[in-house]
Amino acid sequence: MLTAVLTVIIIELYTTFISNGEKSKAGTVDVVLVGCGIPKKGMGWYHLTQLLKMETVNVSAVVEPFLLNKDLCPNPPNSFQKLISSLEDQDIRCTSSIRSLNRFRKNTICLIAGRTSDNPKLFNECISHGAKVIYLEKPGAESVEKLQLMSDLAERKGVKVYLGYNKNVTPYVQKALALSKKVENANIIFSHNNSYTSEDLPECFTRNSEGMLKNMVVHELALLVTFFDVTVDTIDKFEVDARETATEKLTLWQPGTSMPDPTYISDFSRVSFKVTTKKGRSVTVIGDRCGGNISSASVEDSSGIEAEKFEFPNEDDLKRVDKQCAADPEMMPYFFVQNDDYLELKNRVVNSTLNGTEADGVATIKIGIEALKLAEYGTERLNKAVD
């Protein structure tokens, strides 16, 4: 009898401290990163750099379905190979498949940052493998239908799902929201810029083939859902600024294809539109792939007079970012710009998992579904305005 009891205790201790072959630190939660990408380019990779520094996190495994699959990618970039070597030196399991890992015994978070088209499959595999919490990079799936199926599965299995909409917690947005409550009939203008060049756009369009509204501007759409009660059903007017300087749609050669049968891909390089709800609340959204590093939220009164404009990064932050970009030009600039937001989101999800609570202010999959509905609705309206 005593032997049997000791055996059970030993097994429980093993389960507590060992997950997928790696030791877990006390007071931490296991995190499995799914979808790493290339160092300095992939969103998953940047999440990983932060996760490895978080004292409340034990990175138990890294899953990279493409770069670690020798059939699909026999010669991954040297930077990625060095990364994997470094991770393995830290006893972090690196593999191309979730199924190759031991089933998650502990309360495990899966952070999924794969290609949008791959996310539903990866999501299902994480839940089947025992994940209790999922942090899903936006927009989560290519369509509302697919994201809804993912939400239904998570609900049946009791899995919490959060989406990585960092602007839900970013200070410049919070300041604009607070001011708008003091200005009668205020209109907020959200301006979201990326720093791609025109030469970068073919690769950008291809890598983000779900489209600009589902990829870039979906952050602002999530803000509209969360803070302005904007949904497809509550919209009264959707007004597109169809001037080419405000909304531009391009059809570009798709990298990797060549004569005699090249492939072309179409998407927006910039957009501008104003949404007014049936309750009379107005919000303007501007997005520009080649607009630079500064995004902003402006608050206007009912006459269109600007009360105040909040920029991010601010002057001091921009100097810091410029120095960081100059020191490391291979790094995607928005990693430097949004570093604190990414970290704040992950801290909220990790802490809520450790405490058994909800992650305050972090977008749920329900908000993600409504944002994706807005993206599909908005894309249709934009296309009608410029075609």
Write the layout of secondary structure elements.
Layout: H1 2-17, E1 18-19, E2 22-23, E3 29-34, H2 43-51, E4 57-63, H3 78-89, E5 93-95, E6 108-112, H4 119-128, E7 133-136, H5 144-157, E8 160-163, H6 171-180, E9 187-193, H7 201-207, H8 212-215, H9 218-228, E10 235-240, E11 248-253, E12 264-277, E13 282-288, E14 295-300, E15 306-312, H10 315-327, H11 333-337, H12 339-355, H13 365-386
Parallel strand pairs: 3-4, 3-6, 4-5, 6-7, 7-8, 9-13
Antiparallel strand pairs: 1-2, 9-14, 10-12, 11-12, 12-13, 14-15
Helix pairs in contact: 4-5, 5-13, 9-13
Radius of gyration: 22 Å
**Protein structure class:** alpha/beta
Classified by CATH, the class of the largest domain is Alpha Beta
Shape: globular
Terminal CA distance reads 78 Å
Query: What is the makeup of the main sheet?
Result: 7 strands, mixed
Q: How many structural domains are formed by the residues? A: 2
User: How much of the polypeptide forms β-strand, as a percent range?
Assistant: 15-25%
Name the helicity range. Answer: 25-40%
How confident is the prediction overall: mean pLDDT? 90
Architecture (CATH level 2) name of the largest domain: 2-Layer Sandwich
CATH names the topology of the largest domain as Dihydrodipicolinate Reductase, domain 2
